[in-house]
Amino acid sequence: MKINLSNIKKAKNILDNQDCVAIPTETVYGLAANAYSNKGVKKIFKLKKRPQNNPLIVHYHSINDLTKDCEINSDFLKLFKKFSPGPITYVLNLKKTSKISNNVTNKKNTLAVRFPKHNLTRKLLKLLKYPLAAPSANISTKVSSVCYQDVKEDFGNKIKFILDGGRSQVGVESTIISLVNKPKILRLGGLKVLDIENCLNKKLSLKLNSKKIFSPGQMKLHYSPGIPIRLNVKKPNKNEAYLLLKKKKEHKDFYYYLSKKGDLKEAAKNLYSTLRKIKKDNFKSLAVEKIKNHGLGKTINDRLLRASKFNEQ
Ligand code: TXA
Ligand code: MG
User: H/E element holding 199?
Assistant: First the structure.
């Protein structure tokens, strides 16, 4: 994408004034503010209606910037070299001297950090004197945004500026790995766990539901298009939308497919926009066919399972 410097400068001015800007990333759009500013970070929580106890990811341009705030280790360096910038978030120990706002971390002594790949956002980060705290740019519990229009739909004019960077190419959030003690996957995402395991040359454990935030065994509603979802469905009910991995030969009006040929990477990229489309087309419920549970299929299934918690509300 061609870089429009005046838009980047506009975003910078707003951020310098401790306000929020939506930024494009390769995973999903983020709602960003100066991670060192209590005022800016508080605005993020308010706009998203996000519970205070859910900490934010901080976005950096380079390792040099990161080392002001976090302790790094050898596993981090291995992964960074191979996958960053890209769809991976590292949880690291926060340095005592760090200026990261307490509102970002909910006073934890760890910090989730990421190096986004989108060239507009990298250019912006390079110009700033601070890193950007940025959760996904959507109302809390709802589907994330993967383009300018999605952010506009969720926030209207409440956000001063949306830096338009086109469509997010990965389409699902980053994979989160904790490197604080033994490496652990905390969230499935745009980078396959197997790729991370191969890089570290070890099998990783998964800890996908934080007990600190949710009670054990309970999974919180997330990524929801705001309608009930049924999973692993062979035959949809009347009036239901039917979400398919792969385009079927025969087409019906209520069929929505994630990828023409059943490619999981393409399916992940299309997941959120398809969920938004189904809601806009006014379907009151959604049935999903069984989706292969390997590679990025695991991330897609994780998102759909969490979105299906809508049924239990
Ligand atoms: O791809 C992404 O990661 C996007 C783009 C905008 O970068 N961001 C994103 O942020 O997905 P958000 O806020 O929607 O999700 C951040 C997740 C939350 O589940 C939060 O609980 C977890 O990261 N998190 C943040 N800090 C943490 C920490 N110190 N330890 C463990 N989990 C943490
Ligand atoms: Mg989110």
Answer: helix 193-200
